[in-house]
Structure formats: C-alpha cells, structure tokens
Amino acid sequence: MxxxxxxxxxxxxxxxxxxxxxxxxxxxxxxxxxxPAELERTRLxxxxxxxxxxxxxxxxxxxxxxxxxxxxxxxxxxxAAWTAVARVLVNLDEFITRE
Length: 99
Prior knowledge:
Layout: H1 2-14, H2 20-32, H3 38-56, H4 59-65, H5 76-90, H6 93-96
C-alpha cells in the first residue's frame, strides 16, 4: 500500500499534465518502463473514474487510502483514486519481474 501511495503521490507531483490520459501514461512509464497499450489506457481510465466515484461517496475511506503527504491542492478523493490505480500497477507481475 505504501508503495502505491508513493507512486501515486509522485505521479501527481511530477506529471507534465493534469489530464488523466497523460497521468496514466506517466504512471505506466514510471512503474513498467514502457508506454501503455491503448486497451490498458482505456481500462485504467475507466478504473480511475470508478474509483473517483466510489471515494467521492466515501470520503473517510479516501482519507485512509490517500497518502498523508500528498501534493498541495490534491484532494483525498483524487489521491485515493490514483492510489488505487497505482495498486493495480504495482501488483502486476510485470512490475516485479522484468523480462
């Protein structure tokens, strides 16, 4: 969980754009050292939207999931949604094993 929080916080701080597509591309490059495929981008975009929807109705849960040291101006809901995306990426076999 801490690795996912750190990855999400780093992406939110360093991403060259605030557009979801660019954030997804940046996070995949950081974690997998490659560009995401179109299907991956689409699925991750759907997932981040689903997580935003969930956390917007569960703000207390969002505060628990989001890193305490999130970038200034980033809400707990937004940080939690991106932490969920980061958890998907860090749990991929590709994240752990480079071939």
